[in-house]
Design goal:
- The chain has 291 residues and is of the alpha+beta class.
- It has a single domain, classed as Jelly Rolls (Sandwich), CATH 2.60.120.
- Helix content is 28%, strand content 24%.
- Helix 3 runs antiparallel to helix 4.
- The mean pLDDT is 90.
Length: 291
């Protein structure tokens, strides 16, 4: 992997942001934005346990999905408060994602401000919470709806690996899915280049997010996240301004995902072998172009 650090600024003007990051599809960390929000100091484990601890949530382990697993299938369900109490106690290889805590506690929307000056098209009904225990992993993928993301870390530290969408074949994307065949766990210590050689050519970014950091992740960016410490983050999603970008997200949600789920249920082995062949054929082609 050919990695560089994500740019970091404390604050940035909307004009500079649009010119240098939004229009160029380049990630950025803004360290000062969330520090102006009430939630920066207010939101913590005990606060969430008190206000929404009785709600049931799906939890996900660190095991990569197999050939027969539909996208976004929870590994277990538990009370949100019980989960957070476990997170507080120490390392826990379980995480929660796409939890709309604001549906259960609408007063929380007063604790942050939408960054409307930086992007249009925010989906304001669905701010989402992401929580992970120390050691939990979000495996390499891109967001299926192809939205721009403003991802703010509120507690703990998280390591993030990022790649533009165009690097998909070097990352060994599974056809008809948003996932990679390769395992990027502890990539900074070791990675299986023997079985995934095209990944050597993949050009991307890495960053460690801390309390208050807001990561701008352009639409379609591949990302792999590892929780260095237990923590939680909030994602605000903004649809792409172009019609093509919007239609791509709609197709992924209602076309690609539905077809993949149907094939996994009806002809799982054939479908898996077919996709596996295509993964490596695409990667070999990327290797040839790169050399």
């Amino acid at each position: 992997m050919q990695l560089q650090a994500v740019d970091k600024v404390e604050n940035i003007s909307p004009e500079d942001f649009k010119k240098n990051y939004y229009d160029t599809m380049k990630p950025l960390v803004i360290t000062g934005m969330a520090k102006q929000w009430p939630g920066y100091n207010k939101w913590n484990w005990d606060y969430f346990i008190d206000i929404v601890g009785d709600k049931e949530v799906g939890v996900y382990n660190n095991i990569k999905s197999d050939a027969y697993t539909p996208i976004n299938t929870a590994d277990d369900y538990m009370k949100f408060g019980d989960y957070l109490k476990q997170v507080k106690q120490g390392p826990l290889g379980l995480r929660i994602f796409l939890f709309n805590i604001f549906q259960h506690a609408p007063q929380l929307v007063k604790d942050f401000a939408w960054p409307d000056a930086y992007a249009k098209g925010f989906v304001k009904k669905y701010p989402m919470l992401f929580v992970g225990g120390e050691g939990s992993i979000t495996h390499m993928h891109f967001d299926i709806d192809m939205s721009h993301i403003f991802h703010t870390q509120f507690m703990g530290k998280k390591r993030v690996l990022l790649f533009p969408f165009e690097e998909q074949h070097k990352l060994y994307r599974k056809p008809w899915e948003v996932l990679s065949v390769a395992d990027y766990t502890n990539y900074y210590e070791k990675f299986d280049y023997t079985n995934f050689p095209a990944t050597k050519l993949a050009k991307g970014y890495e960053v460690i997010l801390e309390h208050g950091d807001t990561l701008f992740m352009p639409a379609g960016y591949w990302h792999h996240m590892e929780y260095i410490q237990s923590g939680f983050a909030m994602s605000l999603r903004a649809m792409q301004s172009s019609l093509g970008g919007k239609l791509n997200g709609v197709w992924n949600l209602f076309g690609m995902r539905g077809i993949d789920t149907l094939m996994k249920k009806t002809v799982p082995k054939w479908w898996y072998e077919r996709k596996k062949k295509k993964v490596y054929a695409n990667a070999d082609e990327a290797l040839k172009k790169g050399s």
